[in-house]
Write a structure and sequence with these properties.
- The protein has about 375 residues and is α/β, with parallel strands linked by helices.
- Helix content is about 40%, strand content about 15%.
- The protein contains 12 helices and 10 strands.
- α7 links the parallel β4 and β5.
- The mean pLDDT is about 95.
Length: about 375
């Protein structure tokens, strides 16, 4: 794959799919590579196993390149939640988080606090519209706070947190922990302001589950104890007849060897995004989101997602008066979206077709009667 057009050609599914924030159908390039890798592992030959093992380095290299950090700060994880577990279970002090966060943050932080014997405490905030703004964080700060945990893009509304501004509010002595599942690979961002960044390839990277990763800055490595570190978190290979300390790098936050076929999927998903260009992907998604705003406005459907392009990503949360009726209309029209409570979430990708957006427009039209 060498051009953005090649990347777009890999979106080969039927029209109507607008649920990328929930699940990304596996791309044909990922499928082809993993089938080939499975055949190699089926042979059992050492040379074949060695080839597949190279996928670990590839995935770490691509992730580090997209994060614009050194490779020794990247670890491969079964999921983003696993990366957050390493962060929270090794922390002390008070961690600010929104009570409306995705459970990967809220549940993991709560469980870590319960297991900490009082050394870790969540400080839940309830910011307006669930937007974790610098102002909302500033109101919750005191000397006890050691970290903020935040989703880069809110799964409910699509609000894009201002990471640089949050870093300024926190100052240099607190950790910024970012769940980038809803943004990594589709938004250009300076992730260097964060101390921990976790992601997963099963949504926007189109690499299915088991494809998590995490980065830990030098400051994070100093302040987060590698409580869940296993034999995969040491230097020098398998520690037979020895019990070495965790590695000095981010490798410390690993438990065992990576699932090679999962890592292969992640590597290809990351490679495809890198080759296509994150900036071009972001611009294309922005255009699709603008069109969805236009469709919603034309049908008088309120939208919870911020209008400012700098504060949104690929999620548009519609707030119709009759969400069940709209959800039914979308389903009947062949549109795949997510309905939660009073909102209907639609999420286009770079490869979302004009036909899909036309279907969305027509389906909303069948569900909305002017004046009623």
């Amino acid at each position: 794959m060498s051009t953005f057009d090649d990347y777009l050609a890999t979106f080969d599914g039927d029209p109507g799919y607008l649920d990328w924030a929930a699940f990304g159908p596996i791309s044909p390039t990922v499928r082809a590579e993993v089938f080939a890798d499975a055949d190699l592992l089926g042979s059992g030959r050492p040379s074949s196993r060695a080839l597949i093992a190279e996928r670990v380095d590839q995935a770490q290299e691509f992730a580090a390149e997209l994060l614009d950090i050194d490779i020794d700060k990247v670890t491969l994880q079964p999921s983003a939640t696993h990366g957050l577990m390493h962060a929270f279970y090794g922390l002390k002090g008070t961690v600010i988080a929104s009570s409306a966060e995705f459970p990967s943050i809220s549940m993991t932080l709560e469980r870590a606090a319960q297991a900490s014997n009082g050394e870790l405490a969540p400080r839940w905030i309830t910011p307006e519209h669930t937007f974790v703004t610098p102002e909302a964080v500033a109101e919750a700060l005191d000397d006890d706070v050691t970290a903020l945990a935040v989703s880069h893009v809110d799964f409910r509304t699509g609000y894009r947190a201002d990471l640089a501004a949050l870093r300024d509010v926190l100052g240099p002595d607190r950790l910024l922990i970012v769940d980038a599942v809803q943004s990594f690979g589709i938004l250009e961002e300076d992730y260097s302001v964060a101390d921990v960044v976790v992601g997963h390839g099963y949504k926007w990277l189109r690499a299915a589950r088991g494809t998590g990763f995490a980065s830990f800055s030098a400051r994070a490595r100093e302040r987060i104890a590698p409580v869940l570190s296993g034999f995969g978190g040491v230097e020098g290979g398998l520690p037979f007849d020895d019990l070495p300390a965790p590695a000095a790098s981010a490798r410390a936050y690993q438990i065992n060897g990576a699932d090679q076929l999962s890592v292969a999927r992640l590597a290809i998903g990351l490679r495809d995004v890198r080759d296509a260009g994150v900036a071009t992907i972001e611009a294309t998604i922005r255009d699709h989101v603008d069109r969805i705003f236009e469709i919603a406005d034309r049908h008088s459907i309120p939208v919870l997602t911020p209008r400012d392009p700098a504060r949104r990503a690929g999620i548009v949360a519609l707030a119709p008066e009759a969400p069940a009726a709209l959800a039914a209309a979308l389903t009947n029209a062949g549109i795949v979206a997510t309905t939660r409570g009073s909102s209907v979430r639609v999420a286009p990708h770079a490869g979302t077709s004009d036909e899909t957006l036309r279907m969305l427009d027509e389906a909303i039209g069948t569900a909305v009667v002017p004046g009623v």
